[in-house]
Design goal:
Shape: elongated
Strand content: 15-25%
Radius of gyration: 22 Å
Number of domains: 2
CATH class of the largest domain: Alpha Beta
Helix content: 25-40%
Number of helices: 10
Oligomer: single chain
Distance between the termini: 22 Å
CATH architecture of the largest domain: 3-Layer(aba) Sandwich
Largest sheet: 7 strands, parallel
Mean pLDDT: 94
Length: 309
């Protein structure tokens, strides 16, 4: 078994590399280049590709997969896997795996930070000129989250962790999910949740079912001082509507991640950070540990973290 790792050798611990070598011949490809010029194209031996998406620009097309002989599996370094065609791989009897849940706590902590940033009007503070000195007004005055209602849309792995942190802050936690959970939090229909919550967290994964799921009509029922925090991929909620409502002062605040957008592009209590919610040392350690375990299990023909069964 040949194990081609499209990623930097220095990212893995020596112990992890040693374990991989016990299960196959390990070949590192550390530089970004034309994927059709890699040695695995001419290699006739059975093989696994383990891919860091930064080395392929988050693309790995069916045309490429078609040209790789004797490919048993593609082991992605990411939780997201929609950048590789899982159904096509299944048709070729190629397993596609991902790395789930490695950054759950990191993302939940970041979501809590975004909530507290909105509660304390941090975006407005940052956009206030330093030459103005101290300003005491309702535009700047913060809000304490203790005793407020946290509404979570999607009580999955991350949503559950966000709920745990909200409860620790003394908040009343309610949730909506497609199915009721065995949880210590009150279930609410989504329309009621949007009416009653002070801080709304969108923690759904984006897919065909959730695309454009949270509509303008649903969001129009939010409280005047309610804040909306999303750590989900754009396209689930009507973000343009939320921005306009926040700028007009019709809702309390909005927080989201974006590679290109900036807080200075907008008025009011709009918090925008780059997509670093997952990016902590602990999360990276978890990611490489799970990735290594998944590659080894795949070498042994064991099915863990397979996303295209």
């Amino acid at each position: 078994m040949n194990i081609y790792i499209l990623g930097k050798k220095e990212d893995l611990k020596e112990e992890q590399i040693s374990l991989l070598k016990e299960n196959g011949k390990v070949i590192f490809i550390e530089e970004k280049q034309n994927v059709l010029k890699h040695p695995y194209i001419d290699d006739k031996e059975e093989k696994i590709l383990a891919i860091d998406p930064d080395l392929t620009d988050w693309e790995f097309s069916n045309d490429i997969i078609e040209k790789i002989p004797n490919l048993r599996a593609i082991c992605l370094q990411t939780t997201s896997f929609d950048w590789v065609d899982g159904e096509f791989c299944r048709g070729k009897n190629i397993k596609l795996t991902n790395v789930p849940h490695y950054s759950t706590n990191a993302v939940a902590e970041c979501a809590s930070f975004l909530m507290l940033s909105l509660a304390r009007k941090l975006p407005i503070q940052l956009k206030t000129s330093s030459t103005e000195g101290m300003v005491y007004s309702s535009d700047i005055m913060g809000l304490e989250v203790k005793g407020k209602t946290m509404g979570i849309i999607g009580l999955g792995t991350i949503g559950s962790k966000v709920a745990e942190k909200g409860k620790g802050l003394g908040m009343n936690v309610v949730y909506w999910s497609r199915n009721k959970k065995e949880a210590d939090y009150e279930y609410m229909p989504i329309d009621k949740l949007l009416v009653e919550s002070d801080f709304i967290f969108l923690t759904l994964a984006k897919n065909d079912e959730t695309k454009n799921f949270v509509t303008k009509e649903m969001l129009s029922n939010m409280k005047t001082k309610a804040c909306f925090i999303t750590i989900a991929t754009e396209g689930i909620e009507d973000r343009e509507y939320l921005i306009k409502q926040t700028e007009a002062g019709n809702i309390g605040g909005l927080a989201f991640e974006s590679e290109k957008d900036r807080m200075t592009n907008y008025k009011g209590n709009i918090m925008i950070t780059k997509p670093y919610a997952w990016y902590t040392g602990e999360a990276l350690d978890n990611m490489f540990e799970i990735w290594t375990e998944t590659i080894i299990a795949t070498c042994k023909n064991e099915s863990i973290n397979v996303v295209n069964n």
